[in-house]
Amino acid sequence: MEKKERGLKRTVIGLYLAYYLVLIYAFYRNARLQDMTALMLGFVAMLTPWIVPVVFRLFKLKRIYEIDILNIIFVFFASLVGSCLSGYALPYFDKVVHFASGLLLCQVVYMLYSLISKRREPTSPEERRLVLCFNFVGNGFVALLWEFYEYAMLVFFNYDCIKHFSTGVHDSLTDMLAGTLGGLVMCLCYYQAFHSGKDNFFTRLHNRFYDANIQKNA
User: What residues does each domain of the chain span?
Assistant: First the structure.
């Protein structure tokens, strides 16, 4: 294993350890405050860091350490800080999380495109436009599904995570707008890389995923 790979692996392990240390503190804090909702969400936060690794294992994909790092950082803020440490009570915290989700979802959709097409990168102007449209629409669709989930939490469990009673549809629409903007920024990053021929962090990450999981098995 190369020195860089060993360093990335140690970083992933360190981030997971830090995550669960903060989660222990969150359980202690919420138990003292007798915040039962936050305590229940703490059990959810125990599992969320493992969703991406489990998906990779189920589909027999080789994990990329940079993906693990992005995953644990995003889950730390979206699940642990947001749900268990009152992060979503901070102004615009949830909008920043939704914006970041738009960035990351576009990355996931681009990887999905490569899995389907078995192509490392688009080779024609038409395919470049197709990739950008696929990423943008895929990101928007997942953002919509997430809002459906939050609405279902209100309907079936009376848990108002979409702030329906205080803001109506405003929270849901601004969440989707933030996610859409994140997806647009990512598409612009791809557009710049496609037309300049110079990879950035996200296209290099996509290429590493392709080389490890698709080209290897071609």
Answer: 1-90, 91-218
Burial 7-36 (b: 16+ CB within 10 A, else e): ebeeebeebeeebeeebeebbebbeeeebe
For tokens 């669709």, what's the residue?
Answer: 141
Residue 60 three-state SS: coil
Q: Distances from the Cα of 61 to the Cαs of 49, 55, 57, 168, in angstroms?
A: 17, 8, 6, 41
Residue identified by tokens 């305590």 is 39
d(Cα 190, Cα 197) in Å, to the nearest integer?
10
As a whole number of angstroms, the distance between CA 26 and CA 122 comes to 45
| Exposure string over 127-160, b if 16+ CB within 10 A, otherwise e | bbeebbebbbebbbebbeebbeebeeeeeeeeee
Whether pTM > 0.70 for this model: the answer is: yes
The whole-angstrom separation of Cα 199 and Cα 64 is 18
Q: What is the pLDDT of residues 58-105, one digit of tens each?
A: 999 998 999 999 999 999 999 999 999 999 989 999 999 999 999 999
Distance of CA 116 to the CA centre of its chain: 20
Asked whether the CA dihedral 198, 203, 204, 206 is positive or negative, the reply is negative
Q: Residue with structure tokens 């919420």?
A: 30
Tokens of 26: 């969150």
Closest to 204 in 3D by CA, of 64, 103, 75 = 64
Which letter does DSSP use for residue 90 in this model?
S
Q: With contact defined as beta carbons under 8 Å apart, do 209 and 67 qualify?
A: yes
